[in-house]
Amino acid sequence: MTSTPIIGARELKLDADGRQQLRRQRSKPVAEALRQWLTRQRGQVPDGSATRKAIDYSLGRWAPLIRYLDDGELPIDNNRIENRIRPVALGRSNWLFGGSLRAGRRAAAIMSLIQSAKLNGHDPYRYLKDVLERPPTQAASRLEELLPHRRQPTQPSP
């Protein structure tokens, strides 16, 4: 038996309104059926079991889970974020031997700063170079300006 491939919003090149309509048409009934099934299963699973905790977790976060159905601008998955954090997850075992808890915290802070710079459209090297060159002349009351989402790069001298 051969099945017909399902053509999705990406293949149809739909705008946000089109995606929202398609999601309501195709995904909303599936989501509602899943919710009803989870609710029925919840009563058949012992309290405290891992399955019960998973069901309660899903039902307790139902509104955020189905939020994408009402907004065609929202991505249907979190693949983009998952791909961005993958290097951190893969390197985790390498960082177990950072020397000390203090060193690990410093490394985590630096990695967070670099990723924040990337997410805000900055070249990490240039961002860090600029930030590290400013503090001697940066007023302590204006350190917030160095955060990636507020940063204004220094103008290179001619």
Folded structure, characterized:
- This protein has 158 residues and is mainly α.
- Among the domains are: 11-70; 101-146, no CATH class.
- The chain is 56% helix and 0% strand.
- It contains seven helices and no strands.
- It has helices at 9-12, 16-42, 50-60, 62-65, 79-91, 101-119, 124-133.
- Helix 2 (16-42) runs antiparallel to helix 3 (50-60).
- The radius of gyration is 23 Å and the shape is extended.
- 3% of the residues are buried.
- The model has no long low-confidence stretch (mean pLDDT 84).
Secondary structure elements and their pairing?
Blueprint: H1 9-12, H2 16-42, H3 50-60, H4 62-65, H5 79-91, H6 101-119, H7 124-133
| Gyration radius, rounded | 23 Å
Q: Please tell me the overall pLDDT.
A: 84
Q: Uncertain segments of ≥5 residues (pLDDT<50)?
A: none
| Largest sheet data | none
Q: Which descriptor suits the 3D outline?
A: extended
Number of strand segments = 0
Distance between the termini: 71 Å
Percentage of residues in strands? under 5%
Secondary-structure element pattern, one letter each: HHHHHHH
Counting helices, strands and paired strands, the structural category is mainly alpha
Helix content: 55-70%
